[in-house]
Write a structure and sequence with these properties.
The longest helix is centred in the middle third of the chain and has 16 residues. By secondary structure, the chain is an alpha+beta fold. Helix 1 packs antiparallel against helix 2. Helices cover 27% and strands 25% of the residues.
Length: 141
């Protein structure tokens, strides 16, 4: 069973629940070899659950995933890290250009994150959504 072929593919499953609500699952499969296509600069916000239930391996895996993603950013991309437990924190109050210095500082920030407190998801998501937007960059509608 291979999910990646020569071209992107997708799968869609839909159903109607007993409650009359419709549900669907959409799966997108990237091609096996991704061409180095030109792309516009991206903005990405990493929202990290650092509540007590994330202690140990779960939080370490999240940190590894964020680090891997940060390594793939280009210098014209922007990023921010928002973390939450009982409260929220973050790498900064605005989007950062993905310069070598900023990525290095973000990795140091990740090193200091530890799991503690409750799981106040809304606090973290609200903080992420309140990040200032920059004119001239594509925005979601």
């Amino acid at each position: 069973y291979r999910v990646a072929g020569s071209e992107p593919a997708c799968g869609l499953v839909s159903t109607m629940g007993d409650d009359g609500q419709g549900y669907f699952a959409l799966t997108l499969y990237p091609p096996a070899a991704v061409r180095d296509a030109g792309r516009m600069p991206i903005d990405i916000v990493y929202v990290i659950d650092r509540s007590g239930s994330m202690a140990g391996r779960p939080l370490e895996q999240v940190k590894q995933a964020v680090r891997a993603s940060l390594r793939r950013l280009r210098s014209d991309d922007r990023f921010q890290i928002v973390d939450f437990g009982s409260d929220s924190g973050g790498f900064g109050g605005s989007m950062c250009r993905a310069t070598d210095d900023a990525v290095r500082d973000a990795n140091r920030y990740l090193d200091r994150l530890d799991a503690r407190g409750g799981t106040e998801v809304l606090v973290g998501l609200s903080k992420a959504l309140e990040l200032p937007k920059q004119e001239g960059r594509p925005q979601d509608p």
